[in-house]
Write the structure tokens for this entry.
Amino acid sequence: MLILISFQFYRLGPVVEEREEGWLDGKHVSQNNSLKEFYTNTRWCWVFLALASLVVQATASADMSDLHQQILDKSELALTAAFDIEIIMRIIAELPAWRRFFQQGNNWLDLVLAVGSSVIQIPVIHNSEVYPWLTIFQLGRFYRVILEFPRMKPLMVRLVTI
């Protein structure tokens, strides 16, 4: 009997400690950390930046002045850096269970858009003939604005599944 009771305490002891550490049965239990809370509180800023990215792209034209082209290039570089910081922040916010980041489709899409937008900022690519085609990565950020409208999310999900 004493052996059984001591075994039960032994068995329960690590579970209690694991819960305090954020782990339960060998799996990470999500805990809100300050970075995750910061991202949640600034979510609208990122949506606004996605809208700003679309506006910047919409100002482009074939007969732009050099000054307008420079402003466009610097704006896109700044927005790309901001979205790179955001995606890094979102991955770090999931630590130590960073694999959870990849369980959501929008995280995958945002990562692809961030990496694609960063790659096209490399001068060799940015100054090439394919750059205008690759701006699809920058334009793709607009999906985040669309998802903020409650009736649009089911339509977008349905469009993707067709």
The CA atoms of residues 125 and 131 lie 6 Å apart. The radius of gyration is 22 Å. The chain has two domains: 1-31, 34-161. Residues 1-21 have pLDDT under 50 and may be disordered.
